[in-house]
Design brief:
three-stranded mixed sheet; elongated; single chain; alpha+beta; 58% helix
Length: 137
């Protein structure tokens, strides 16, 4: 990815994010739970894959991506009004599975940390040596 395509991708990401927040009224797209994570765009700038993250169930995620792809033409039109490019890239939306995997990893780490804390508390409650030590008393 060249510097130019990276800049255009970032511009598209920001603009499409704003369009989703302010320009779409589709009830299948929950604006509070939908965000643009990244945009992949080839050197010719004729197409762009917009990766989205949708917080919710798998059904809600698929429904939102389907709705975004259905509204892609409208999103392109609104985007074209805000940014000036020789050719407006054809947008396709895909669910960003990397983002979901990251969230799943954080949840797994959080659960593990909770289990460790609970075991430490249980150990301290049943350990008579710590209760009789001079530092505690």
């Amino acid at each position: 990815m060249t510097r130019r395509t990276q800049r255009v991708g970032n511009l598209i990401r920001d603009t499409v994010g704003q369009v989703i927040l302010t320009g779409l009224a589709d009830p299948r797209i929950d604006r509070a739970r939908t965000s643009i994570t990244r945009v992949d765009i080839p050197e010719d700038l004729l197409a762009a894959t917009v990766y989205v993250s949708v917080l919710g169930t798998e059904i809600q995620q698929r429904l939102a991506v389907r709705a975004l792809n259905h509204a892609a033409g409208h999103v392109q039109e609104l985007m074209m009004r805000q940014i000036s490019l020789r050719h407006t890239p054809r947008l396709t939306f895909e669910l960003d599975e990397n983002f979901q995997r990251t969230l799943d990893t954080f949840e797994t780490i959080e659960r593990a940390m909770q289990e460790i804390k609970e075991k430490e508390r249980a150990q301290q409650a049943t350990d008579p040596i710590e209760q009789d030590s001079p530092a505690n008393g």
